[in-house]
Amino acid sequence: MREKIAVLFLDRDGTINHDIGTYVRHRDEFRLIERADDAVAMAVAAGFHVIIITNQAGLAKGIMDEVQLDEVHAYMNELFMKKGGRFDKAYYCPSHPDYPHPVYDRFLNCRKPGTGMVERAIEEYRTKGMEVDMQRSFFVGDKAVDIECARNSGLRPVLVRTGYGEEEACRRKHLVPEYVARDLYDAVHGYILKQ
Questions:
Q1: CATH number for 110
Q2: Tell me: the pLDDT tens digits for 22-61?
Q3: How many structural domains are present in the chain?
Q4: Which of 180, 189, 136, 131 is nearest to 160 (CA)?
Q5: Fewest Cβ atoms closer than 10 Å to its Cβ: which of 33, 40, 62, 130?
Q6: Where in the cell (predicted)?
Q7: Does residue 11 contact residue 53 with C-beta atoms inside 8 Å?
Q8: Which residues are annotated binding-site positions?
Q9: 104 CB-near residues (< 8 Å, 6+ apart)
Q10: Residue numbers annotated as active site
């Protein structure tokens, strides 16, 4: 019998770190949103596994490479660990329909609001003997595609007002998050840990 786990799925740019308007290619371009590291630490302390789910079409566009992206994610985890938090894995979709790329085109179906990255994470936990408890698992993001991905995946959606904070876009698409938070800290401390 598999161990049931709660997972906090997090969008990256605009949710964890400041969206700088272009792709974050180096660690010196990566700046945490205030108290995002505290939020992750609180979630981990409460027993959540943490997974990053991020569209990174800068790879298909040739703006960055996977080594650079992995270094940014390693740095992000270093920052989390300083506060006692961490993430288990960062899943990223490298493709974009408007930028054909011979290596990355096979990954087009992973782009949010598609559920490919979430499905991969759930399957990898299964191979390790763990079952994601969808009723106790959340997806936090700043865009309508994050809320749609959460809904499509059966996860509980939370929208943050940092980054794009697309409340109006969600309303137009009839996507209703469970909670609209000021930031990731408010999402975790003000809502998720109270459920």
A1: 3.40.50.1000
A2: 899 999 999 999 999 999 999 999 999 999 999 999 999 9
A3: 1
A4: 180
A5: 62
A6: Cytoplasm
A7: yes
A8: 11-13, 19-23, 54-57, 93, 110-112, 142-143
A9: 59, 60, 94, 95
A10: 11, 13
